Amino acid sequence: NAGVTQTPKFQVLKTGQSMTLQCAQDMNHNSMYWYRQDPGMGLRLIYYSASEGTTDKGEVPNGYNVSRLNKREFSLRLESAAPSQTSVYFCASSFQGGDTEAFFGQGTRLTVV
Amino acid sequence: LAKTTQPISMDSYEGQEVNITCSHNNIATNDYITWYQQFPSQGPRFIIQGYKTKVTNEVASLFIPADRKSSTLSLPRVSLSDTAVYYCLVGDKGSSYKLIFGSGTRLLVRP
Hints:
The structure holds 2 protein chains of 2 kinds.
Chain A: E1 4-7, E2 10-13, E3 19-25, E4 31-37, E5 43-49, E6 56-57, E7 64-68, E8 74-78, E9 87-94, E10 102-104, E11 108-112
Parallel strand pairs in A: 2-11
Antiparallel strand pairs in A: 1-3, 3-8, 4-5, 4-9, 5-6, 7-8, 9-10, 9-11
Chain B: E1 9-13, E2 18-23, E3 32-38, E4 45-50, E5 53-56, E6 61-64, E7 70-75, E8 84-91, E9 105-110
Parallel strand pairs in B: 1-9
Antiparallel strand pairs in B: 2-7, 3-4, 3-8, 5-6, 6-7, 8-9
């Protein structure tokens, strides 16, 4: 099993460009998450999807949009990238909302210049 | 959500037992305590979870006193590969629980 797969692994964007980070899980999990982690800092929750068809804002949602395409996939979109969005982005999934054991992808390292 | 407080960093030596304490004074009745481990350039990994008293698995032990206002993650006989950031999370496992991470404790294990 691949677990949680994120694409791409690395990306460099120019300020103002848009892009979508992809995340897919093959564990039949209901809940999925997007986090960002700045250098030397903890993870901050951007958006959360408790189940297919639902999304909810996390701690730092501004500048981002999400789509829960189906049960497997949860994408994160930056409409107009800013240098402040330079970070490592992690996707995670858990069996259901409230499940405290989540599984994380390997991350996407994004640099906005 | 109960706020958690952990030491920013800790140092240890190979073979020692390491105890990382997390303070969560406003923990609610239904809240569980969960610990994650994160190695550099990787996503966090679930280590252990508990509600009260003591929980042990193949990786660590979790000690929770009766008042549940703090918890201690215990790593027996650490090795260099235990160098990582350790996060303490507190939440009620209900559908609204969103896995909010704090800053974590950066553990450095020296030879």
